[in-house]
Amino acid sequence: MLQRAVIEGRVVDADARLALETRYGHFTSMQIRDRRVRGLDLHMERLEAAGRELFGVGVDRAEVLGSIRAVLGDDLRDASVRVFVVDSDGPRVLATASAPVTPPDRPHRVKPVVYQRFLPHVKQAFGFQQLHIVRQVAREGFDEALLTTEDGLISEGAITNLGAFAGGRLLWPDAPMLRGTTMRLLERMDVPQEWRPMKVGDLAGFDQVFLCNSWGVMRVGEVDGVALRQDETMMTRLLEHYDGVAWDRLD
């Protein structure tokens, strides 16, 4: 347990020390609009499952909701919120709020990077490796990285899930990954769906490739310099399904 911590020469209080000393935990990210969130039960399921795996105990739904309301305060109606469960003499719930994010309405450029996460099904707090990868590809002009094995088998994006359409079917990579909340909401779309191994070289043969995370749904226009097809019909159907997902109240 830290006794004292200093940031830029200033001694910080106990709550700031907690943020500095906790390096083990999990979290979920959500976009709040008008104090509502899509897929609240899915966020709670994620926190519950990860809590039991990492700490041997789930989460208190009332505490999680109370933390979200507290970080929003009386003034924030729209925000990007993260709820962390971290180890500090047992699991503790932390929440942060920042400016809301809307994904840019343009095709994304993505780059394959050979990297596989440990415990990929857990949304792990303090992910240095993924942040480093995202920053590296951004310096090269890419919007996102695709995490692959040495032979090019795709699992997920660094901060997204990847999906595709081919012949009217919705395709997902059959690989170890974090099944994001937005991905799980898109799985409810009323179209034939299939999980299959996907390699980077397969993407150019699909009708539409997209990314999804808590920000929303983003089309992919290019993978490592290779232009991809754009299917406006299927993309419109996908976005209409996502836009039609009900928002859950937090108050």
TrEMBL record:
Keyword Magnesium applies: no
Pfam families per the UniProt record, alphabetical: Aminotran_4
InterPro entries tied to this protein: Aminotrans_IV, Aminotransferase-like, BCAT-like_C, BCAT-like_N
GO molecular function: transaminase activity
Top-level lineage group: Bacteria
Keyword list, A-Z: Aminotransferase, Transferase
Protein name: Aminotransferase class IV
